[in-house]
Amino acid sequence: MSQDDVLYEITDSVATIAINRPDKLNALNVTVVNALQGFMKRAEHDNTVRVVILTGTGEKAFAAGADITEFQNKDSKGVRPLSENGQEFCKFMESMSKPVIAAINGFALGGGCEIAMACDIRYASSNAKFGQPEINLGIIPGFGGTVRLPRLVGLGKAKELIYSGNMIDAEEALKLGLVDHVFESVEALRDGVLKFASKLATKPGIAIKLAKKSLNASWSLPLKENLELEVDVFCETFDTEDKDIGVEAFLSKSKPEFKHR
Questions:
Q1: CB of 42 closer than 8 Å to CB of 26
Q2: Do 225 and 188 fall into the same domain?
Q3: In the predicted model, what is the mean pLDDT of residues 93-97?
Q4: Do residues 44 and 162 share a domain?
Q5: Known catalytic residue at 241
Q6: At what angle do helices 241-252 and 205-217 cross, to 10 degrees?
Q7: What confidence score (pLDDT) does residue 1 get?
Q8: Ordered DSSP codes for 62-78
Q9: For this structure, is 94 an active site residue?
Q10: Residues of the chain above pLDDT 90, percent
Q11: Structural contact between residues 77 and 84, judged by C-beta atoms closer than 8 angstroms
């Protein structure tokens, strides 16, 4: 893999990670997924980074699925590391303390759709297309698609999409809750995502981390336990310097300057 197949840059506390294989519609393979995870870990451990944007270069694709050449001559044992690798990356993004925003420019198919679903927020350009077409290869999603898609769009619609392999456009994805906002162009998407990410970067980092922890738990914990967790993390925010800054700024009608501690 070329060192430039995944790009990484930081601007004003926002890290942007971009799959850079536009000639292959930003298709995913093992080395690309490893590089993505490596950069996500770098962003997670960099105290200057507050928010991460995940995207693809060009205007045609966020990530148009897996590199199908990796499926050739593989049996169940040979392909297991590929699936486990993709799931590990997606679980890592979900568990990060920092928000990850998917900027979906064009095709988000197969593994591309799956990694987008593992991000906290999904913004798309109007030309975006979504789908889990694995069934057309005689296989099923392996990066978490059969788990996250029904949680986002409902079980019946997820079955329809996965059984058929059909693609949907950005407006349909918005109606279903698969994406959170649609922009009229890729340029407007990039500007809008950066503006929103920059806004999130000014918010108190510990509170964001704890909110994410409680929100993610709503997918895995029973209601009673999730509510108990919310009490715990709510109380935890009261031991932070940012809580004092935020309350004082509100009472004095000034703008808070959070310290993320």
A1: no
A2: no
A3: 95
A4: yes
A5: no
A6: 110
A7: 38
A8: EEESB-GGGGTT--HHH
A9: no
A10: 90
A11: no
**Domain total in the chain:** 2
Q: Which residues contact 200 (CB under 8 A, 6 or more apart)?
A: 50, 51, 99, 101, 208
Nearest to 26 by CA among 62, 1, 70: 62
Contact in structure between 104 and 60 (CB atoms under 8 Å):
no
| Tokens of residue 160, six digits | 């329809």
- pTM of the predicted protein model: 0.94
**Rounded to an integer, what is the distance from CA 74 to the centroid of its chain?**
28
Strand partners, 253: none
- Residue 2, pLDDT above cutoff 80: no
**Claim to verify: residue 101 and residue 210 sit in the same structural domain:** no
- Per-residue pLDDT tens for 12-53? 999 999 999 999 999 999 999 999 999 999 999 999 999 999
What burial class does residue 146 get, using C-beta atoms within 10 Å of its C-beta: 0-12 exposed, 13-18 middle, 19+ buried? middle
Residues in Cβ contact with 34 at an 8 Å cutoff, skipping those fewer than 6 apart: 85
**Would you place residue 106 in the very low, low, confident or very high pLDDT band (cuts 50, 70, 90)?**
very high
Active-site pick, 9, 59, 114, 236: 114
* Domain hosting residue 217, numbered range: 205-252
Pairwise CA distance, residues 78 & 85, whole Å: 12
Catalytic residue among 59, 134, 187, 225: 134
pLDDT at res. 69: 83
Identify whether residues 154 and 242 lie together within a single domain: no
Residue 177 confidence (pLDDT): 97
